[in-house]
Amino acid sequence: MKKNYIKKISNWGLFPEVEATERSEDIEKNIREYILQSREVIARGNGRCYGDASLAENIFSTKRLNKFLKFDRINGILECESGVLLSEILELGVPQGFFLYVTPGTKYITVGGAIASNVHGKNHHLEGCFGDHLLSFRMMTERGEILKCSREENSDLFWATIGGMGLTGVILSAEIELKKIETAYIKQEVIKAENLEEIFQLFEESEDWTYTVAWIDCLQKGKNMGRSLMMRGEHALKSDLPAKIQQPLKLKQSLKPTVPFYFPSFVLNTWSVKIFNWLYFHKQRAKMIKNLIPYEPFFYPLDVVNEWNKIYGKKGFIQYQMVIPKEQGYEGMKEILEVISKSGEGSFLAVLKLFGDENPQAYNSFPMRGYTLALDFKVNKKLPQLVAKLDEVVEKYHGRIYRTKDSMSKPSLTNYLKNINSTKFISLQQKRIKKL
């Protein structure tokens, strides 16, 4: 067995940071030995979740579980190990005409992380979560057993693990269904909305679109509160492409810049966020534009810059994401934006989406039918007070906080997992929420 070494580890938000041992193995015998010898442990993929969800004193990294096992090109069924990145699936699948049914806003997460968080995308209202297209997985339990789990086999563990935040065991491999596509391009419409009322109306009118999302200027007040840009899109067909595109499933590769250092904390402030928001909203003059774009900037706009999390400085940031039931969605979001505007703690990223019906079998999942808003906030002395005020609004409207991004919200809003009884697989987040 390899020795364990203590090192400082944080997730993508750079907050919190813990001292932990981290081990990565790809031989099941060694994984079993590590789990059995550890009093407590949690699995961690590529560290792209925010907050404290995959942090613990002992971490099992799935990075070496990175192999493709089988690909049925007729039916689009892929089997791979749990440490394979979504970006690697796209590199394999897109040139052969296959895409992920559900993807979050970054492609640099692992399959295991996507299952543990039951991630959602811009199409939840029509196509659900990642787990809705998961066929089976193999899991190592706290006793070192390896179980295959599916809707028919060990189904209790299957459903508890989907959205179960890694608290049921270590996912070793998974079998997922991919979507057939004709091209690597998206037909997109970008529509300007002058206020919150207009963007909600646009969401209602766009429920037939597969992908919908809106960026919100969260610092606007009065008649401009909720000023937004809606992006809605569909996978383009071959007949939608201009003649000059000879290879519809192939995209040009471009170099990505890297944020070279941690920005000083004063760079991000109310005024710099206001200037950014003004420029972003007014970059488009027309009320609506229609265009054809590669899938990458549509699904992964933040992935075009490496290590963008450094712009928040060494103290890091949190991503606060909540969902409010649809019937109270407008009133709830209005109060959320009022709290943020009064605080002056603006967010570069403020993304609004519409969730459809939740899958009652995947009971540990975050989404419920309603509106969800995700916001980035720099970590500073004022942040806990702002989070407490936002939590009050979410609780008032019977909403929920996304555990994948949480590190400081009220346990009453995050303590929604069921049938999680392991004393071996425990994260820092679970201890904080349960006060273990």
Key structural traits:
alpha+beta, 12 helices, eight-stranded antiparallel sheet, 18 strands, globular, six-stranded antiparallel sheet
- The counted number of beta strands is 18
Global structural class = alpha+beta
Output the helix-strand order.
Answer: EEHEEEEHEHHEEHEEHEEHEHEHEEHEHH
Mean pLDDT: 94
Number of discrete helical segments: 12
Largest sheet: 8 strands, antiparallel
Form type: globular
Strand arrangement in the largest pleated sheet: 14-11-13-12-16-17-15-18
State the helical fraction.
Answer: 10-25%
Radius of gyration: 21 Å
Give the percentage of residues in beta strands.
25-35%
- As residue ranges, the low-confidence spans are none
The N- to C-terminal Cα distance equals 30 Å
Quick structural gist:
The protein is of the alpha+beta class and 436 residues long. The chain is 24% helix and 26% strand.
Topology of this structure?
Elements: E1 6-10, E2 17-24, H1 28-37, E3 42-44, E4 58-61, E5 68-72, E6 77-81, H2 86-93, E7 98-100, H3 111-117, H4 124-127, E8 134-140, E9 146-150, H5 155-161, E10 170-180, E11 185-193, H6 196-205, E12 211-216, E13 228-235, H7 270-282, E14 288-294, H8 295-299, E15 317-325, H9 329-343, E16 350-355, E17 370-378, H10 383-396, E18 400-401, H11 411-414, H12 428-434
Parallel strand pairs: 2-4, 3-4
Antiparallel strand pairs: 1-2, 5-6, 6-10, 7-10, 8-9, 8-10, 11-13, 11-14, 12-13, 12-16, 15-17, 15-18, 16-17
